[in-house]
Write a structure and sequence with these properties.
Distance between the termini of chain B: 51 Å
Mean pLDDT of chain B: 82
Shape of chain A: elongated
Distance between the termini of chain A: 52 Å
Number of domains of chain A: 4
Order of helices and strands of chain B: HEHHEEH
Radius of gyration of chain B: 17 Å
CATH class of chain B: Mainly Alpha
Helix content of chain B: 40-55%
Number of helices of chain A: 28
Oligomer: heterodimer
Strand order of the largest sheet of chain B: 1-3-2
Radius of gyration of chain A: 37 Å
Number of strands of chain B: 3
Low-confidence stretches of chain B: none
Largest interface: A-B, 33 and 30 residues
CATH topology of chain B: Arc Repressor Mutant, subunit A
Number of strands of chain A: 22
Shape of chain B: globular
Strand content of chain A: 5-15%
Number of helices of chain B: 4
CATH superfamily of chain B: Winged helix-like DNA-binding domain superfamily/Winged helix DNA-binding domain
Structural class of chain A: alpha+beta
Strand content of chain B: 5-15%
CATH architecture of chain B: Orthogonal Bundle
Largest sheet of chain B: 3 strands, antiparallel
Largest sheet of chain A: 6 strands, mixed, barrel
Chain lengths: 901, 123
């Protein structure tokens, strides 16, 4: 029979033979094929005969292929092992080969400690960075919410300008949404809480009947609210306190139920303590109390101040709910044109998880992405190092193969080595991750949710394990596969001198190319983030935040009337202004940047409007004299408030430029009038126009703002706030002494006054972009790390190339090559690798940066300046990495090189 | 790798039935894979049809244990083609192991005869 005489089914048989382990196949496949041919030749002619052969052959093949694979896996194929098996020397366990390989790997490391340290350090950095970031991602994003039906809980609000929900809307939604089984409304007032003698300003939650049932959370101690406690006729206030408050104020006393606290001067009875970790709607919520909704006496439909949380009915989908809510909104727009005149009412419904973490997620994902890139680059670098060493070990491997070690055995051993490196790297990485994780938590911006209980759990451990194994595979596979390639006999013959350098060098060059490309992607990501941050920092805030100390002063409402409150604040300002460090001081109802989002409907220039829907609106600010000067807000027209603009004086207001341009375009608004959308409010004369201030944060647009003198606000702007922020411009950078002095002044001026939110204006501004700064800083750090690793990679390859080509260079120099041509020889190689990597990287960056879009401010994801500077820095770094190898190449002495060669 | 002590035949006993068959078939002259199958077929009157997987897995095991080895290519190979079939033969160890196994079986046969489970053959 000749080879060309194919028998029936031979091709399929050939393919099926692949089921056997490779080593087995290499030895027996030809024989088995031969066996098969003989079987078919001897079988009865025709399809029936072939079918009979196959019916016997297939089960046999299946069973034996599995058995062989298992045997191979367990290392039972080795002659030495088999012999040990028969001698009962207990080395037959698969662990024994592993043990051998591990020992071998560790011995190898100890032989070359510097090499091992570089590899381990690189891996530890990569794995550690990922571990640390993942710990945070896990703690903040992945950990399940502590609610039984977390997947079905939705956050429910409105699109701007309404953003929140009014009482009437809540009542109507409750009736009109069959997709919800529960719907609760809550508001988050801030009030003064007094326990014993101690008063503090705390955030609390006023919740409707369905609030706790929707979240399905019960108190850890005591009882929940009873339905009758939500009745408008219920008497006495009951509260559920937070775990933190229980610990801090009641020392975790289990007898706390039945005790009382004062909330804005009203006595409230504690009926229970919420479990630890329950922090909805807010991490700082001190206590929850029932909202006694009186359906008969609802506030106007226009007063949007509630938030809602709902539980999807079983079987209902988010899409159904949205459709139902949109239908309701559309109907109301028709039914109440005087309420929703100009602006569409649109429900915004998101899963609770999205609502809580949606804003943080892009930052964390960007960080994790950057960390993964660092790990990849680290892997590539290590693979490269191992390749270089692999070349040095070719002879060793060739000898092992020649002595009968199977290819599989060699690959296994090299992979084990990689795994040992990865495992040791992971141990270092874990320590690094724990330390770095702690640092990250400490320095992370405080608006990241759930940061306080970030920690190592099963998921983090699993992530680290998987990362380690994947890492080992990624950096171990290439060198391992290269290790078994090539003819061992040939390697032995030439004494391992030439090392088949061509192919191996190509592999290394490709790795460096990949590395450069990865670094470019990471660098440009960091670059566009950085540019966004710079853009943000360059934004004109409209005020001068330097040297401004602020603190919030809250008067207990029941103890102060408008008059006494005014007297208190006048007195306080007078005393504060006398402090030697203070150059000017004023009060503000809501600070720029961090202030809230309220907007009040108004009428202008004597035109009485019938419906609130057609009226313009602006954000109110109650301020005292000296405010513009203290904040460094320049006045564009007219004058600012003086002490004379008090009670009894003509009502006055200052508006910002935006409001002036919106309502009085092209006209000087000074002398024009406005009034609240209320029958009783007086007309107010505009006396000045102030420069625009970033009232809602650096990234957000500037709202129209109207400023009222604090003393007149009670009449001209609905009410006079009892909580004001004291702003002080100091002569030098602020310190604790000033704050202490002011606290003393406040204590002496009035009792039970709470001080909170102590911060410099710089802090307030910084805090508002803290997440961005934090993320950008870390990504930049990762990018620099990546750049350094890439530089090491380039250096390694070029230096190795030069050392391999010493002989060639020596010959060239001997034949009269100029130094220039030697340099070119080295640089062309490096340049080609770097530029190819750079090109791939730039394409990758253009794609990857798309993912960052949501984080960019006035910066294109393919920002030309960024990409150009990244390219430049890569070229510079690559050139620097080539310096030493090039020098070495130029110093090659032809005689020496030739003699050595 | 540490040098292993040489195995004694007794350590490899008992052999699996297929191993015993293969070793016995090879006790005559070197055979190739398909030949072994044919020999077993003939010997067992067609009761045991060894398939390639099972056969070569057994060969692999016996080779690993050093009981059989590839014989040098036979000049008398009948096939005129270039694919030299691999022929296997017993190693000295293989012969000793086979002998030891057959001795073990003989002892069992003797016992069975003594207890009248089978009729002793007339000698």
């Amino acid at each position: 029979m000749t080879r060309r005489d194919r028998v029936r089914g031979e091709r399929i048989y050939r393919i099926l033979l692949r089921a056997y382990p490779r080593a087995f196949r290499e030895r027996y496949a030809r024989d088995m094929l031969d066996f098969y041919r003989a079987r078919i030749t001897d079988a009865r002619p025709g399809v029936a005969g072939v079918a009979r052969v196959w019916s016997q052959l297939l089960p046999d093949m299946f069973a034996t292929a599995m058995a062989e694979r298992l045997a191979w896996l367990h290392g039972n194929t080795d002659r030495a092992t088999a012999i040990h098996r028969h001698y009962g020397t207990r080395r037959e366990h698969p662990m024994s080969i592993l043990e051998q390989d591990v020992r071998y790997a560790i011995r190898g490391m100890l032989r070359q400690p510097a090499f091992a340290l570089i590899v381990l350090g690189t891996l530890a950095l990569g794995i550690g960075a990922n571990g640390a970031i993942f710990t945070i991602v896990n703690g903040v994003l992945l950990r399940p919410l502590p609610y039984a039906n977390a997947g079905r809980i939705v956050d429910f609000a409105h699109k701007d300008p309404y953003s929140q929900v009014s009482e009437a809307e809540f009542v109507d939604y409750k009736k009109g949404l069959p997709a919800l089984s529960r719907l609760a409304a809550y508001s988050r007032p801030t009030l003064t809480m007094t326990i014993g003698d101690e008063s503090q300003v705390v955030e609390v939650a006023r919740v409707s009947l369905d609030f706790f049932p929707a979240l399905d959370v019960a108190p850890a101690i005591g009882r929940g609210f009873a339905p009758e406690e939500f009745s408008p006729t219920a008497r006495g206030v009951v509260v559920l306190i937070s775990h933190a408050l229980w610990q801090q104020q009641f020392a975790g006393d289990v007898q706390v139920v039945g005790r009382t606290l004062l909330a804005d001067g009203v006595s409230a009875t504690i009926v229970g303590v919420m479990p630890q970790g329950f922090d909805f709607p807010n991490e700082n919520t001190a206590f929850w109390f029932p909202w006694r909704l009186d359906v008969a006496r609802l506030q106007t439909r226009n007063n949007h101040y509630l938030r809602m949380v709902g539980l999807l009915a079983p079987g209902a989908s988010l899409a159904q709910l949205r459709a139902q809510a949109n239908a309701l909104d559309a109907r109301w727009m028709q039914d109440f044109p005087d309420i929703y005149g100009r602006e569409r009412l649109v429900a915004v419904i998101e899963p609770l998880r999205e609502h809580l973490f949606g804003r943080t997620r892009p930052y964390l994902v960007a960080l994790l992405g950057a960390a993964v890139f660092v790990l990849l680059i680290a892997c590539v670098n290590v693979a490269n190092l191992l390749l270089v060493r692999g070349d040095a070990r070719r002879k060793e491997l060739a000898i092992r193969t020649a002595l009968g070690a199977s290819a599989g055995r060699v690959v296994r051993q090299m992979l084990t080595e990689s795994l040992v490196y990865a495992a040791l790297g992971a141990i270092g990485g874990s320590l690094l991750a724990i330390a770095a994780g702690r640092l990250l938590v400490r320095f992370a911006p405080s608006d990241v949710p759930r940061l306080h209980d970030v920690g190592v759990d099963g998921r983090v451990v699993a992530f680290m394990l998987i990362t380690t194994v994947m890492t080992a595979l990624v950096f171990g596979l290439v060198p391992a596969l290269r290790g078994i390639k090539g003819d061992s006999a040939e390697t032995l013959r030439d004494g391992g001198r030439t090392s088949g350098a061509g192919a191996s060098h190509l592999a290394r060059r490709s790795l460096v190319m990949v590395e450069v490309a990865l670094a470019v992607v990471l660098l440009s990501g960091a670059g566009v983030l950085m540019r966004s941050l710079i853009r943000l920092r360059a934004v004109d805030l409209g005020f001068a935040p330097e040297h401004i100390q602020t603190l919030e002063v809250t008067l207990p409402p029941r103890m102060y009337t408008d008059t006494t409150a005014r007297m208190f604040f006048d007195e306080l300002l007078l005393r504060v202004r006398q402090l030697p460090d203070v150059s000017s001081a004023a009060l503000d109802g809501s600070l720029p940047i961090s202030g809230d989002d309220s907007a009040w409907s108004i009428m202008i220039d004597g035109h009485v409007l019938k419906t609130i829907g057609e009226s313009p609106s602006a954000r109110p600010a109650q301020i005292t004299s000296g405010y513009f000067k203290t904040m460094g807000i320049s006045l564009r027209r007219g004058r600012e408030f003086t002490e004379a603009d008090g009670v009894g004086a003509p009502f006055v207001a200052v508006i910002n430029e935006r409001m002036a341009n919106m309502l009085w375009p092209g006209v000087n608004p000074v002398g024009h009038t406005l009034k609240m959308f209320s029958a009783t409010a007086p007309w107010v004369t505009i006396v000045g126009v102030a420069a625009d201030v970033r009232a809602r944060g650096i990234q957000n647009d500037i709202p129209p703002i109207m400023y009222f003198p604090y003393a007149q606000a009670g009449t001209s702007a609905y009410y006079q706030p009892k909580r004001m922020t004291l702003v002080m411009r100091t002569k030098a950078a602020g310190d604790g002494a000033l704050v202490d002095a002011v606290r003393g002044l406040i204590r002496r001026t009035g009792p039970r006054v709470a001080v909170s939110q102590v911060a410099t204006m710089d802090d307030v501004v910084g805090q508002s972009i803290a997440s961005r700064r934090f993320t950008t800083g870390l990504v930049a750090a990762f990018a620099i790390l990546a750049l350094m690793l890439a530089a090491i990679g380039i250096y390694g390859v070029i230096a190795y190339g030069v050392s391999q080509r010493r002989y060639e260079i020596g010959v060239r120099v001997a034949l009269g090559a100029s130094p220039g041509s030697v340099i070119r020889l080295v640089l062309v190689d490096a340049g080609r690798t770097t530029l190819t990597g750079l090109a791939i990287g730039l394409c990758g960056a253009a794609l990857m940066n798309q993912l960052l879009r949501s984080l960019l401010v006035q910066t294109s994801s393919t920002d030309a300046v960024t990409l150009a500077s990244v390219a430049l820095s890569i070229v510079v770094v690559a050139a620097a990495a080539c310096l030493i190898p090039t020098r070495r190449a130029m110093m090659v002495s032809p005689t020496e090189a030739l003699r050595a060669g | 790798m540490p040098s292993a002590p040489k195995p004694l035949p007794i350590d490899l006993l008992p052999l699996k039935p297929v191993e015993l068959l293969v070793l016995t078939m090879l006790s005559g002259e070197p055979r190739h894979g398909y030949g072994i199958r044919q020999d077993i077929l003939a010997h067992t009157n067609g009761a045991i049809e060894l398939e390639a997987g099972n056969l070569y897995r057994t060969i692999r095991r016996l080779e690993t244990d050093g009981l059989l080895d590839e014989s040098s290519p036979r000049a008398s190979a009948t096939d005129s083609d270039d694919e030299r079939r691999r022929y296997y033969e017993l190693t000295p160890l293989g012969k000793r192991v086979l002998a030891a196994e057959l001795e073990r079986l003989r002892a069992l046969v003797r016992l069975g005869e003594a207890r009248r489970i089978i009729q002793p053959l007339p000698t």
